[in-house]
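Example (one chain per record):
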Amino acid sequence: MVCTFCKVGPDSHDHLFFSCDFSRKIWCKLKYLVRMDCAPNDWQNLLNFMIKRPVNESIWSILQRLVLGACVYYIWQERNFQAFGSLKVVFWIDASWLYNSTIC
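Predicted structure:
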């Protein structure tokens, strides 16, 4: 199977999070908004990066983890809607601002 978003890469976690152009643009914009500019854009390195980060009660620590979780959840949900023919739900953000961004 191929990626439901870009139709080029494989349908895998490594590609979907965040090697695919569609998901990478979303991740790059969101990680910038929560001060995670230096976070990697590939799944395995991102997991290692997050595991090594200190968990504390600062607002940024909380926001960073919430944003990553929400990003993964909604990208996976949108992938399933497209892959399995469910009623397509409008993606959780207006993606037009992503393509006009110079981040990543």
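Caption: The longest helix spans residues 59-83.
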